[in-house]
């Protein structure tokens, strides 16, 4: 605790940190101006946002509640998916300088508790890719449906080749060829062989397939150089799936392998948890659409594009409804129309502090939302409620683009994954050593964009990008993670531990 009452997170002394980070320091090419002067550990590699960090032994610490018993690091409650109520916790709000703020966890619980659970729908198997199976699929067929060759070679009787060796091969007469798709195969008896292709029907009398590489690959006669046990390289009826076997379980993500199996058991359609339909709107008199040169005082609407893209990345079917018109009646009609076509409506806007603005008046006419201050930075002002005849959840996030995407990560993405039926609602997190001092407002959970890197000696190092300014889109585009600083932490010393949320596409 410092003299001025601030809480400080300390993982190492600054001298220790400088020594540790300076080991093998080298000049980085293409250095980001925002982090010039920060030592770059030798051979430290930037984590690829497309593949994400791979937890490997000692250099990765998966965040869980038991690992954070100390107050030295931020709480992982948002990132771990632990929804267990704390009996010692506040009822959902905190007092900051005499102002009651809703906690991040409480606002998240409100959103998750109100989003709908869409009923399963039946789709063609290809259209079901990426969704969760919503039915128990059992097979009425046997796979394979007939005894077949497991590879290219010669179908023979195992008793005929028991004495075969490289020095003394067994010589057999070849009485035919069978390709995959042939409706019949010649039977064989003692001393005979049939040349077969992988997947071809096994000839009657044969109980083994000798790989072509273990023969001289003769045409009229073949010499076999090895003995095989009965059943070798043969696929028997029902070896893969027997009638009545479960092909795909409820809750299984449907990918190429599941689509292959569904097709094999004769399913053209399958019941799945559908993609939630998300309508995205932007509010603000200052907004113009992309392609329109903004006049002085105007800005391009980036939120409806960014949030629609984020919703699609999370697995939703997103509609970009664009900018809300600056007329209350038309605004009401547009929002109401979106509630009729969507499972969730997402609105980004800057909301008035002194009293209701045009958007709030339109929302009040539709039933009203609860506007609240959430103890987070950036973007503490949020709103949530249900509107329209179908009581569709409407989520309002801050209008600053960086704050809007942070709010999406914290509140909207978990809601989409819940509607999809996903078990893991939140992104995986890791602990990382901060390469710089971090400052955070007391009482607010701070989300900073950063670049997380793996250190060759083990663990992760994270460098913040910028100073948390809500309008710096270029800085945000360079980030591959969010740094989470807890509400009761105002300073993290260089070398202190922080929670890092890697931003993995589709993760």
From TrEMBL:
Pathway: Cofactor biosynthesis; molybdopterin biosynthesis. Residues 279-418 form the MoaB/Mog domain. Its cofactor is Mg(2+). Keywords: Magnesium, Metal-binding, Molybdenum, Molybdenum cofactor biosynthesis, Transferase. GO terms for cellular component: cytosol. Its EC number is 2.10.1.1. It catalyses: adenylyl-molybdopterin + molybdate = Mo-molybdopterin + AMP + H(+). InterPro entries: MoaB/Mog-like_dom_sf, MoaB/Mog_dom, MoeA-like, MoeA_C_domain_IV, MoeA_C_domain_IV_sf, MoeA_linker/N, MoeA_linker/N_sf. It is an enzyme of class 2 (transferase). Belongs to the MoeA family. Catalyzes the insertion of molybdate into adenylated molybdopterin with the concomitant release of AMP. This is Molybdopterin molybdenumtransferase. It comes from Modestobacter roseus.
